[in-house]
């Protein structure tokens, strides 16, 4: 029997998932796609051909091996199922490549198939570039548009009670997303109540909420006491919407209560790495390792930094939705929430929303664990973290996070002083939204954080960070907090750095230091010198070997001055001080510790 390879790829995932700004619809859309991708594709394949095999199915794509005469039908059925489950909101593209007829079944996983794989990829790309013609729909000025996406015509109201939103009308696509979110909410609660029994891929709830089954299963393995409080089992709930997440954030212990943090992580150069695999066996192993690594990274970060949070005052609303309001005497176990929400997870992508004071620790942990779990595949992540006030629109926050992530990827190999000699291209970039006029990071970088003046180049940020350097920066912040470093001085230093030149920056920074206590001044200067020695010096290698930057940096407080390579005589002035000030409020002295405001 001849086999064919079938590649499937979901089209424009983000425009479907983030078609609206509402958490419920985002999560519903994400969950529908996840189930179609991880469960239903395989079900359809096995239904058509019991001997069909999955090479991989995650991150919105799939690669399947099945009987040649069933391949085209498989693509059509998957496409029909996508259309049905998303009410036409999402589509999937497929391509088929037959394998050599002489290929024996036992050799399928070991044979070198680079030609067939390259052809398949080409066919998939070509199919993606020629989407089917769209059918124009009837239009009328009196048709009402969907209250959520505003793009499609409204089809009806929510069939279940939604406090304060009864008057809203939604289109079929948005309604489907909302009903999905309501369904998986129940599945997640059932699974969170018995974490020890959750097995991904088995049981109704695990098949419904694919992502959470996997997460809860891993959480229970990594931290068996995650679902316990003082020895008693608790059943944490998923935040109902962004407002619930805001209450969870403001009930937290950290110093900054009114910020949310959005983390967006993405694998570095994964497409290129998977294209280097020669056999189906290698591809299967690679895809599974990367998918496992991102799940493990998420579960570890959740276990360590995102314990369930007790919130009061939200119960009435939550129960009203379930139609079971009780007066008084709420059982205590009902008032725990996960202090985060996963909006997207798959392949090598992760988007997670949490409170501002937790985001940085979580992002660091995710990047660190992913790197160690995917070491064999040389997998690394780039991460963008955006801190924004609670009321900041989610859509803007997401586009800032995407931009910060792109900057991290682009800059990983560009920055001269970032060269490390090792192959770890993990980078973390962050952006703090302050005031209404915050711009995308690459724009800020060019206009605020860097400046050229004659033969001198000033750079007020070391972003994007390598993990050890960021950890050193966070440790410095913790020390400064223990010392009680005055905030007013930090802001003075920030203003000084932003003057972006030699004379007035140095004068203003020294003036700020004048007002400090001796121990504060000593701490800051010692840290800055130490930081230079350690991280701005090509990892301590002699200048000749490092090649790019010559000589030792001179410290002209608050700048470190490096010579650019060659005979140009160009000087680069850098400082980590501004980054320290910007992150100051987002780092707790110690996990869960609270400090006084000054
Ligand atoms: Zn809609």
Automatic annotation (TrEMBL):
Residues 259-412 form the Cas10/Cmr2 second palm domain. GO terms for molecular function: nucleotide binding. Coiled coil: none annotated. This is Cas10/Cmr2 second palm domain-containing protein. The keyword Nucleotide-binding applies. Pfam families: Cas10-Cmr2_palm2 (PF22335). InterPro entries: Cas10-Cmr2_palm2 (IPR054767), Rev_trsase/Diguanyl_cyclase (IPR043128). One of its GO terms (biological process) is defense response to virus. Keywords: Antiviral defense, Nucleotide-binding.
């Amino acid at each position: 029997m001849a086999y064919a390879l079938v590649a499937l790829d979901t089209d424009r995932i983000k425009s479907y998932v983030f078609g609206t700004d509402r958490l419920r619809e985002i999560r519903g859309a994400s969950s529908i796609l996840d189930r179609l991708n991880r469960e239903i594709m395989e079900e359809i394949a096995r239904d058509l051909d019991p001997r069909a095999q999955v090479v991989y199915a995650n991150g919105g794509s799939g690669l399947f091996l099945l009987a040649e005469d069933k391949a085209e039908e498989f693509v059509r059925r998957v496409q029909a199922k996508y259309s049905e489950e998303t009410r036409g909101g999402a589509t999937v593209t497929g391509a088929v490549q037959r394998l050599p007829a002489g290929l024996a079944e036992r050799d399928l996983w070991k044979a070198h198939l680079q030609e067939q794989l390259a052809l398949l990829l080409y066919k998939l790309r070509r199919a993606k570039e020629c989407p089917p013609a769209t059918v124009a729909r009837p239009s009328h000025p009196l048709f009402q548009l969907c209250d959520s996406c505003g793009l499609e015509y409204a089809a009806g109201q929510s069939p279940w009670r939604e406090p304060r939103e009864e008057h809203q009308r939604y289109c079929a696509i948005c309604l489907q997303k909302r009903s999905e979110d309501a369904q998986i909410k129940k599945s997640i609660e059932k699974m969170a109540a018995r974490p020890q029994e959750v097995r991904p891929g088995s049981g109704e709830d695990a098949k419904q909420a694919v992502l959470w089954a996997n997460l809860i299963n891993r959480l229970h393995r990594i931290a068996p006491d995650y679902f316990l409080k003082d020895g008693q089992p608790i059943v944490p709930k998923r935040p109902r919407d962004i407002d619930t997440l805001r209450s969870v954030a403001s009930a937290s212990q950290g110093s900054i209560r009114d910020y949310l943090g959005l983390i967006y992580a993405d694998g570095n150069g994964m497409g290129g790495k998977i294209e280097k695999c020669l056999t189906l066996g290698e591809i299967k192993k690679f895809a599974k390792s990367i998918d496992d690594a991102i799940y493990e990274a998420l579960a570890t970060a959740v276990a360590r930094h995102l314990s369930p949070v007790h919130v009061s005052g939200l119960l009435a609303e939550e129960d009203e939705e379930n139609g079971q309001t009780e007066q008084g005497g709420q059982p205590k176990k009902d008032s725990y929430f996960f202090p985060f929400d996963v909006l997207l997870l798959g392949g090598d992508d992760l988007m997670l929303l949490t409170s501002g004071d937790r985001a940085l620790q979580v992002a660091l942990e995710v990047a660190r664990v992913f790197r160690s779990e995917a070491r064999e595949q040389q997998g690394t992540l780039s991460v963008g973290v955006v801190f924004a006030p609670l009321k900041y629109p989610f859509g803007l926050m997401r586009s800032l996070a995407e931009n910060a992530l792109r900057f991290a990827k682009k800059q990983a190999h560009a920055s001269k002083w970032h060269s490390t000699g090792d192959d770890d291209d993990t980078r973390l970039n962050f952006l703090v939204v302050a005031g209404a006029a915050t711009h995308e990071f690459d724009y800020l970088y060019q206009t605020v954080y860097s400046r050229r003046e004659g033969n001198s180049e000033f750079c007020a940020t070391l972003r994007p960070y390598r993990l050890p350097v960021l950890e050193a920066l966070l440790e410095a912040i913790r020390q400064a907090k223990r010392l009680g470093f005055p905030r007013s001085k930090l802001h003075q230093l920030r203003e000084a750095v932003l003057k972006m030149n030699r004379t007035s920056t140095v004068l203003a920074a020294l003036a700020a230091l004048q007002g400090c206590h001796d121990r504060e001044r000593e701490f800051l200067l010692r840290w800055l010198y130490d930081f230079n020695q350690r991280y701005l010096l090509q990892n301590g290698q002699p200048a000749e070997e490092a090649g790019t930057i010559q000589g030792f940096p001179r410290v002209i407080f608050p700048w470190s001055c490096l010579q650019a390579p060659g005979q140009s005589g160009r000087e680069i002035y850098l400082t980590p001080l501004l980054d320290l000030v910007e992150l100051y409020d987002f780092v707790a002295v110690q996990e869960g510790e609270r400090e006084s405001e000054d």
